């Protein structure tokens, strides 16, 4: 490690060790500033257009009654949810792509999003559960899917990354079939409710609905960031990580459960939102020109992507509002096609 290019938080031999590259730190500051600027702009943009001064006064509790309600009770919960849930998806994608050593190894491609959706759909269609029951179903479905995929991928004392991806895609296909059966078996009203939730939306978000998921995501991100060094060692390969004293299988399982929890918590709050977890680490990695990516930068990039996508969904066809999942899956599909073409063997040969 070149000390002129890095800061180190913690010690090389301690459990908590966080090396920070100066270039990565600069990118993090830029992404943080972009998130803050876009958030302030979004707080003032809408049917009732507000000035910067109005927004600042409302944030400090000094605005008139109507402006105070619009900023702090209508717009701020949505923007806060977009930032924190986008960060959660970015961190989740960075962990998975590092562990699996594959740019396609994100939770929405491997199928953990589908597992969370299956859990929520089961609660909606079979038990007619409310918002919190649906959120609990999504969290349980995501975690159960991760455990099943890990168990099926286990072979001769380990679960290799490529095998995890293949097994995850197969389990995702089975869950998609199960979800389709649930939808066609449900009543029309239930199927419409499930389809609306399945589109992934931040419309109508309130503090009371999303606070549990936001608190959980913040705690999980805080737990994941200090494990950056262990993730980098695991990304070097199982043999190299084991030689450097990392308990490979235990660490991989713990990090996978942490990453799945982040994805499932975001899904529980808003419904499945695709491609943020896939794109955020990749864009950050390409901006830095590095092989690995810091979790903090992936978090800021995920927050910026989801916040921008939600503003497009909110205002592009105003007064109608699109689910943000429609925007991310449309833009993400183009990005995935570009990624596959750009990284194809014909291009690299």
Order of adjacent strands in the largest pleated sheet: 1-2
The Cα radius of gyration reads: 20 Å
Which overall shape is indicated by the principal axes computed on the Cα atoms? globular
Number of helices: 16
* CATH architecture label: Orthogonal Bundle
Which strand-content bin applies to the residues? Answer: under 5%
CATH topology: ABC transporter involved in vitamin B12 uptake, BtuC
| CA-CA gap between termini | 31 Å
The helix/strand class is: mainly alpha
Q: CATH first level: which class?
A: Mainly Alpha
Protein name: ABC-type enterobactin transport system, permease component
Transmembrane segments: 24-45, 79-100, 109-128, 134-152, 164-184, 204-225, 253-278, 298-317, 324-341
Keywords: Cell membrane, Membrane, Transmembrane, Transmembrane helix, Transport
Membrane topology: Multi-pass membrane protein
What is the topology?
Elements lengths: L5 E5 L6 E5 H23 L7 H8 L5 H36 L6 H4 L1 H15 L4 H23 L7 H25 L2 H11 L8 H18 L3 H8 L2 H6 L4 H23 L5 H13 L6 H21 L8 H19 L2 H4 L1
Antiparallel strand pairs: 1-2
Helix pairs in contact: 1-3, 1-14, 2-3, 3-9, 3-10, 3-12, 3-13, 3-14, 5-6, 5-7, 5-8, 5-12, 6-7, 6-12, 7-8, 9-12, 13-14, 14-15
